[in-house]
Design a protein that fits this description.
The longest helix is centred in the C-terminal third of the chain and has 17 residues. The chain is globular. The chain is an alpha+beta fold and about 650 residues long.
Length: about 650
């Protein structure tokens, strides 16, 4: 079973390590001659105060002229390409959206399903045009799907060929998908969260003998911008607003106020901070906690998602301690719960984010609208929730966890850390699980585990080793979090080590690990539907360790109650409010079984400079996600305005 879309995790697998140097554009398209951004222009004829400069977290992109977004070997997607030049049928914003979280972009309306969800009809929007003047029609949608069905190697080849029985195009603006099996969420393949199946220009690709090998250069745009120039060494990409930008879907939401946008490789965190302090980098994708603290103290024009601590935007992604539920010992929920109660979340938050974390005790990220749908309504349940410890009811929830993180962070950051209880809850989260080694010890004994020479062993006395895999120091927050969990577990008597990996994802997917600090839960953020990740957790997709997991069930968790929840969600329409109830049922089941230990949101220290531009998204105006590699950030360009206006 193929994933519905390239997820943020897939992106990080392919992302290059950012380099230390950045050259800015020359005169000709693809020229190598750099021009300094220190003067009034970033390139000939491109005034600095008309050009929004953003970090491309992919770093240096090679080959720089390969824009075939529909195969995995192309790495130019975060250069502004998927944000500014491509477009999809629908978008679901990870935050509140410009006019709500759902946007009909290239589609004129939401997907239309028949009664049993075996047919999906798409009505495309009329009056949109590619940048070369050709009208966008259903021909493009039909071709995008048909060519990928027929061509192995495209990102959606497996999904489309496995799901679609046939395609039908009754008129110039309509496509009908006949599905092999009922699927009320088939539209997710065409709905941008971070990315999706963007629509190809048929009139360009159909001329190519090998559309898979085609580089799609120069790219023809269906978005509001076209490629003006780029560095053949892959360090910067300059985009210019189309003269006919009103013939694109984003124009329906407002005026596109930014004339130029340049995505660059600004180098490591310290160089990003220096560049923004010099007002030569408007949007930092991410930096270290120390870098963000420096900006908070020394750069009054720099703003974050939150007005103050913790500054960062919490992505709709949930870093967690992921257990291989097939490993001896870890196959027992009592042991997984013991390992959870042996984690001090205050220490983990301080080690990873200097306290600027947004914690979550439950198995959905505390971001976007999810606090409203899940965290807040389930708080009374969490306060009453109990597990069996030594045969007695034990309440593991600690409602004071976020307050304790704030108190600890305040020791070094002082007044930067809020004191108001509601602000702390909004910024840092609510509660988490207790740090209780006595209860953890009893749970280990309940599972039949034994202490041998001060370390926990399996019931037969054999070693119980739980090395914790993590990303290496190139992702400092996750690496530091994992290191602290290891220290916590060692204190508890777990035989563990930190296993830092440059490429942990293939190992995680294969199941050749015991525990891993990463993420396997990614949600829409702005929509409560959890099928985005839950679909792969059904037991019918279960794959044993040693083989690559189907989708996101890398922990190999199987549960008949979970299957029922997933099947019930799949029978509902996407907008049915009962989906929220079923989502809450999943959260309760996951808390009881603890297949993974949720930690916090993936907080991204996206930082925006207001020297030249204003109107960035923030918690007070959450119209989209500011993290600049997300496809949804196209919506920033109808809100951001040059300050000189």
């Amino acid at each position: 079973m193929k994933k519905l879309m390239l997820t943020r995790r897939d992106f990080l697998k392919q992302a290059a390590i950012v380099t230390a140097a950045t050259t800015l554009p020359g005169i000709a398209l693809g020229s190598q001659q750099p021009v300094s951004a220190q003067g009034p222009e970033v390139a000939p004829g491109v005034p600095r105060d008309e050009c929004l400069i953003l970090e491309n977290p992919t770093g240096t992109v090679l080959p720089a002229d390969d824009f075939n977004r529909w195969r995995s070997s192309s790495n130019t997607y975060s250069t502004g390409f998927q944000q500014l030049a491509l477009d999809a049928l629908w978008y679901i914003d990870p935050d509140a959206g410009v006019n709500g979280v759902w946007d009909n972009a290239l589609a004129a309306e939401k997907p239309i399903y028949n009664e049993d969800y075996t047919q999906m009809t798409v009505k495309v929007r009329q009056g949109l045009y590619w940048s070369d003047g050709v009208e966008f029609t259903a021909d493009d949608v039909f071709y995008t799907v048909d060519v990928q069905m027929k061509t192995p190697g495209f990102n959606y080849s497996g999904l489309f060929s496995g799901s679609i029985d046939k395609l039908e195009q009754p008129d110039k603006y309509t496509v009908v998908f006949h599905l092999k099996t009922p699927n009320s969420r088939f539209h997710a393949a065409f709905t941008v969260r971070w990315g999706a199946c963007f629509i190809m220009p048929k009139h360009v690709f159909e001329k190519e003998a090998d559309p898979l090998a085609f580089k799609f250069y120069p790219p023809v745009s269906i978005g509001a911008y076209t490629l003006k120039d780029f560095d053949p060494n892959g360090k910067w990409f300059l985009w210019q607003r189309r003269e006919d930008w009103k013939r694109t879907s984003v124009a329906l939401l407002g005026d596109v106020g930014v004339k130029y946008a340049m995505y660059i490789d600004p180098g490591p965190s310290d160089k990003r901070v220096i560049a923004q302090k010099a007002h030569q980098l408007d949007v930092i994708h991410d930096c270290t906690p120390e870098g963000r603290i420096t900006l908070a103290k020394t750069s009054p024009t720099s703003v974050g998602w939150f007005n103050g601590f913790p500054w960062a935007h919490p992505d709709p992604t949930l870093p967690a301690v992921i257990y291989n539920n097939e490993k001896p010992g870890l196959d027992k929920k009592e042991v997984r719960w013991a390992l959870t109660l042996a984690i001090d979340i205050v220490q983990v938050a301080m080690a990873s984010y200097r306290g600027a974390a947004t914690i979550s005790a439950i198995h959905v990220p505390p971001t976007g609208l999810y606090p409203h749908y899940y965290h807040e309504p389930l708080e009374p349940w969490l306060n009453d929730f109990s597990i069996k410890v030594g045969g007695q009811d034990y309440k593991p929830y600690d409602a004071t966890a976020a307050q304790r993180i704030a108190d600890e962070a305040r020791k070094s950051l002082g007044d930067l850390v809020p004191t108001d209880a509601e602000t702390i809850k909004k910024y840092i989260g609510a509660g988490w699980w207790k740090y209780d080694l006595a209860a953890a010890e009893q749970l280990m004994l309940d599972a039949g585990m034994k202490k041998v020479d001060g370390k926990w062993a399996l019931p037969d006395g054999s070693p119980f080793k739980v090395p914790l895999m993590s990303m290496n120091e190139t992702n400092p927050t996750m690496n530091r979090a994992a290191a602290m969990v290891v220290e916590n577990w060692k204190t508890f008597g777990i035989d563990t080590t930190l296993d830092s990996q440059a490429q942990p994802w293939p190992i995680m997917v294969s199941g050749n690990y015991s525990a891993n600090l990463a993420w396997t839960i990614e949600t829409w953020g702005g929509d409560p539907d959890l099928f985005f990740f839950l679909q792969f957790w059904h037991s019918k997709f279960y794959v044993a360790s040693g083989q690559n997991s189907a989708g996101s069930n890398s922990m190999r968790w199987k549960n008949p109650e979970l299957d029922k929840i997933i099947e019930s969600i799949q029978k509902l329409s996407f907008d049915d409010p009962k989906g929220i109830e079923l989502g809450q049922d999943f959260v309760k089941l996951a808390a009881q079984e603890m297949p993974i230990t949720p930690l916090m949101a993936y907080n991204v220290f996206t930082t925006m400079d207001t020297t030249y531009f204003t109107g960035y998204p923030t918690i007070d105006d959450p119209y989209t996600d500011p993290v600049p590699n997300w496809g949804n950030t196209k919506y920033m360009f109808v809100k951001i305005k040059p300050k000189k206006e």
